[in-house]
Structures are given as structure tokens and as C-alpha cells.
Design goal:
Length: 561
């Protein structure tokens, strides 16, 4: 065999290759950002859509590099790809104007060693609506940094009102701006840090609003023009509850808070929403000016007939997100801390055309293992991050007796199985999300089935049953990967456990059957077929089944006649 030597490529070809690599690197070097892609908005990291299968640490875990060191390999082995990690104003700026970034540097280095991305939570003026994270030089200076008056007495919670005069807000913004400048300097090319949370669950607890002198003056004043201007410009897209309240009071273009929204706790909540929003949007804008990463706020959920104050009044609840948006554009996302059992209702309220779903906190364990499929399948959630993800790996794990935490520790393995299965199909899932052909579901005895359409097909998904046995748990996602109208060829990909699928045609008189059902797996995006499922495993050809005992990845081809 004559050895074929490649002639030396001319210099121009060599240079083209080098330049295209540099261009590709430059494209990848764009900072993490959100991008509208077809039917959805996705997080883009290093130039590609990124599906965040993450977790949030306990509040104090990341305050010590030593404490975190043994955690990282086990967290990465879950496998999670992102860790939501608190950093605090008190540890970053212990003395006004003097910043200490050693902890941030250490956390970034530890995350890099495990190829895990980070979302930093900036715990500063408020965390769970109270002010335990500001530095002492802030806490001990109530003249410069006034407190909220709640239920008739001065609280230890910093007031967002007086801060708008440039006290607390400017100091907070300056500190976060310094943090972002530092992160850009050390991580602007590596993108270990991919998003930032600004404050944590802000809002006024135990009272419907701040009753400090500045707050009372503000509440009696005219609503800032930005609010009615936004309401008018976005009237048809407003949250229905907010629109109805505004319309019920005359759809006014001006007036005091009580004149525009009625003299009730709802007006108090809207007033507080404006003031927290005005503050946080300004802090986020200062941070973005230093390093433009996606930024969001998270909400301690209330809603329904609960009175503001029993949950943080003014926090980014669905019914005041529009008020938050009227105060600025620096925040990219409004995110629920979603622990509620009516998970689907809340997810649907937050997943708006102008607000992709992101879950910075939610349940882990078996509940998280199930709901992650619904979140990324039905709502194209860009991130799913159970809280206390480190509970199963902490020194205290074995000593845990508190039932919900013990269940979370026990169920971490099940969550890991879901993450492993979704990770394997993530590139396909992200592509199909953009096309809008994905559905996710979490079935139970209370909700044993769900129906939806996919192109020309009706799809029914129900708890699996065979030979008299019925599963009481079924969760997963389905997507249509091929739909060739000309040949009638269609293919679906499914991942999950404990459910069965029946597909029918939406065209009267046309029939659909399963031409083939295979289980298997994806490795580096390549399908590795396993069994051809038939007989009992398809209920004698009558259903596309997913065994309840473990998560399976299966492909089904349809035929029509
Ligand atoms: C929600 C908060 O955002 C977290 O920091 C933590 O306090 C959890 N609640 C505890 O359930």
C-alpha cells in the first residue's frame, strides 16, 4: 500500500484554520446569557444551550472552603452540573470599602476541579425577608441605614424605603459591583459562574408593608409614572389578578397607591413590590455594568387568599411581577422557590412568555426526582435546583432525624437517577424544546393520567398497569423527534418510569400503531439500542410501556393507515 502523504497545506489554509478556531473560541467566550430559541428562552453557556440540573447548598455550607472540600466530588457525582452557592455581604466587605474575595476564589477553584458550574446567591440586605447578612458596620448604623417599622415597632429588618435615597441601596450595589468585577477578572473566560441571584426572598414579613416615616410618606405619595406607563403598555399581558385590581379602580394613569389599587393589603403589597423592585433592579444594574451575567430574584411563595405579610409582602409573587418589571430591566428572571404540592399550578404561573421558568429552590429526593421531568419537559425550565442538596453528604447526614430532611437524604439517589437520565438526552431535549414538541408529566393516584397533542397525534399518558398490577408513581417526558408528513413516518423519544403511552390520530378515520418500540441509551448523543420491546413489555402491542421499577429511555416508531 503506497503511503499517502498529505501535501503541506498552503499557508492560507493554515491561517484560515487558526482564525476559525479563534473565532469559535471568541464565540464561545461570550458570557453566559439568555437567548430566545424558537418556542423557548434558554440559558446559553460557552455558546451552547445549557440545561441546569443543579442544587442549592444549605445557607452556611459555602462559608468554609474546608467544610466544602469533601462535598464537591459527591455533589458532582450526583450528577449535578451546577451548584447554587451563597456568598454574603458580611464576609465580602467586613470593613466598609475593604473587600475580601478569598472565599469566592476558593469556591470557584473547587467547582472547577469538579467541572461544576456556579450560581452565586448574593445574600446581602435581605435573606428570607430579614437582614441577617449585612456587615456589622451596616447593622450598627440605623441612622444611615434605617429599619422597617413593622406592626408598630422598629424591626431589625432594613427598610428598602429610606435606602432608595442612596444609603443602603448604593452600599449594596457598590459591594455587588466589586464582586462582579472580581468574578469577571478571574472567571470572565472560563464561565464557572453562570448566573447570579440578587438578595433572597425579599418582602415585608409579619406586616403588609413597612410603616416607617419614609414608607408612610411614600405610600401617601403619587404612584411613580413608570407603573401606570407599564400597566398601560402591557395591559393584555398583565397578570390577570393585577389587571383586574387596576381596572376595578378605574384603570387610572395616576394617583396614590390607594387610589390606583384600593385601600387594602393588596395596595400595600404592590407598594412594597415597587420599592423592593426599584432597589433590587438598581443593585442588579450596577452588578451587570461590572459583568453582565443573567440575574434573578427568588420568591417565597404566598398567593391565594393568604394575606401579604404572612408571606413576604412585595416579593416577586406572580401577581406583582409586572410591578417588578415596571421598575427596571436589569433582572432577567423571576423565580419561585417551589416547594408546594400544587407544583404544576405555580410553575404555570411563573412560566410566562416574558419569564422562562427557573427553579432555584425546590424539593429534592423522590419528589424532585419526579418533578424535574415535568419542569424541563412541560415548561422547558432552564434550571432545576433542589434546596439542601448537600444534606445527604454533610457530616450530620447520618444523624438526621427530622423527617423531611431524612426523606430528602434517602431520596437523593433517586434524584441522581433522574439527573443521569436527563443529562444523557439533554442536547436532544434542548433542541426539541426550541421546536416546542416536548411534554413532561408527574402522575399519581390523584392525577393518574394526562393528555396532550403532538403535531397530528393525540397522546394519552397514564400510570402503567399490567396483569392487574398498577403503578402508583409515574413520571417522565416525551418528545416527537421525527414527523414526516409525506411518508407518515413519526418517531418519539421517551424517558421515565411507571407510565404507559397510547397514541391516536387527530384525523378522523386515520389509525396509528407502534411499528417498533426499543429501549436503549444515549452515549455522547449516539443512540445505543437495547431490547426490542414487544409482548408483555408492550401489553401485547397495545401500549408503549415504561417499567415502574427504574427509569428507562425508549424510542417508538409509529405507522399510520
Ligand atoms: C427558603 C430560603 O430561600 C432558603 O435560604 C432556606 O431558608 C429555605 N427556605 C429553608 O427551607
Amino acid at each position: 500500500m503506497t503511503s499517502r502523504r498529505f501535501a503541506l497545506a498552503p499557508l492560507s489554509v493554515f491561517l484560515t484554520l487558526v482564525l476559525s478556531c479563534l473565532a469559535a473560541r471568541a464565540a464561545d467566550n461570550s458570557a453566559p446569557h439568555l437567548e430566545k430559541r424558537g418556542a423557548v428562552t434558554q440559558l446559553i453557556v460557552d455558546g451552547r444551550p445549557f440545561l441546569m440540573l443543579g442544587g442549592e447548598l444549605h445557607n452556611s455550607s459555602s462559608s468554609s472552603l474546608e467544610y466544602m472540600k469533601p462535598m464537591w466530588p459527591r455533589l458532582a457525582g450526583l450528577p449535578l452540573n451546577t451548584l447554587l452557592t451563597p456568598i454574603s455581604w458580611e464576609l465580602v466587605e467586613p470593613v466598609e470599602g475593604r473587600y475580601d474575595f478569598a472565599l469566592i476564589d476558593g469556591l470557584i477553584n473547587q467547582a472547577r476541579e469538579q467541572h461544576v458550574r456556579l450560581v452565586f446567591l448574593w445574600l446581602a440586605a435581605w435573606k428570607n425577608s430579614v437582614s441577617s447578612y449585612p456587615p456589622v458596620w451596616v447593622k450598627q448604623n440605623p441612622e444611615r441605614f434605617p429599619r422597617a417599622v413593622l406592626n408598630g415597632s422598629v424591626s431589625t429588618t432594613l427598610s428598602t424605603l429610606a435606602s432608595n435615597s442612596g444609603g443602603l441601596r448604593d452600599a449594596d450595589a457598590k459591594a455587588l459591583g466589586a464582586v462582579m468585577e472580581h468574578i469577571k477578572r478571574i472567571d470572565g473566560s472560563d464561565h464557572t459562574v453562570i448566573m447570579m441571584q440578587v438578595e433572597n426572598e425579599v418582602g415585608t414579613l409579619t406586616d403588609t408593608r413597612d410603616h416607617s416615616p419614609a414608607a408612610n410618606r411614600g405610600f401617601a405619595s403619587a404612584v411613580p409614572a413608570e407603573v401606570p406607563r407599564y400597566l398601560k403598555a402591557h395591559r393584555e399581558a398583565l397578570n390577570p389578578e393585577l389587571r383586574d385590581l387596576w381596572v376595578a379602580h378605574g384603570e387610572r394613569a395616576s394617583g396614590t397607591w390607594a387610589e390606583m389599587f384600593g385601600d387594602s393589603s393588596r395596595a400595600d403589597e404592590i407598594f412594597m413590590a415597587w420599592n423592593y423592585a426599584h432597589y433590587v433592579q438598581a443593585v442588579a444594574a450596577a452588578a451587570k455594568a461590572a459583568y453582565d451575567l443573567p440575574m434573578y430574584v427568588n420568591a417565597w411563595l404566598g398567593g391565594g387568599d393568604r394575606a401579604p405579610g404572612s408571606y413576604p409582602s412585595g416579593g416577586p409573587q406572580p401577581r406583582v411581577i409586572d410591578i417588578w418589571r415596571s421598575a427596571g430591566t436589569a433582572l432577567d428572571l423571576y423565580a419561585p422557590d417551589l416547594y408546594q404540592t400544587n407544583f404544576a399550578d405555580w410553575a404555570t404561573q411563573y412560566h410566562r412568555p416574558d419569564n422562562p421558568l427557573f427553579l432555584p429552590e425546590t424539593n429534592g429526593g423522590a419528589a424532585g426526582a419526579a418533578w424535574v421531568f415535568y419542569a424541563v419537559g412541560e415548561h422547558a425550565a432552564m434550571g432545576f435546583c433542589p434546596f439542601a442538596i448537600d444534606a445527604a453528604f454533610s457530616p450530620e447526614a447520618a444523624l438526621t432525624t427530622e423527617p423531611s430532611l431524612a426523606a430528602l437524604v434517602k431520596g437523593t439517589g433517586e434524584l441522581g437517577q433522574s439527573y443521569t437520565a436527563i443529562n444523557a438526552i439533554a442536547p436532544i431535549l434542548l433542541e426539541q424544546q426550541a421546536k416546542g414538541d416536548v411534554h413532561g408529566f408527574n402522575l399519581s393516584k390523584q392525577h393518574p393520567s394526562v393528555e396532550f397533542t403532538m403535531k397530528g397525534y393525540s397522546v394519552e399518558v397514564s400510570l402503567d398497569q399490567v396483569f392487574g398490577y398498577q403503578s402508583d408513581v409515574g413520571y417522565g417526558l416525551l418528545m416527537m423527534t421525527v414527523d414526516d408528513e409525506r411518508t407518515g413516518r413519526a418517531e418519539l423519544l421517551g424517558v421515565g418510569r411507571g407510565f404507559r403511552v397510547i397514541v391516536s390520530s387527530r384525523t378522523p378515520g386515520r389509525h396509528v400503531g407502534f411499528a417498533a418500540i426499543d429501549d436503549g441509551r444515549y452515549e455522547d448523543g449516539k443512540w445505543i439500542a437495547g431490547r426490542r420491546l414487544n409482548g408483555d413489555e408492550t401489553d401485547q402491542g397495545g401500549a408503549w410501556r415504561f417499567d415502574p421499577r427504574a427509569i428507562h429511555t425508549e424510542r417508538a416508531a409509529l405507522y399510520r393507515y
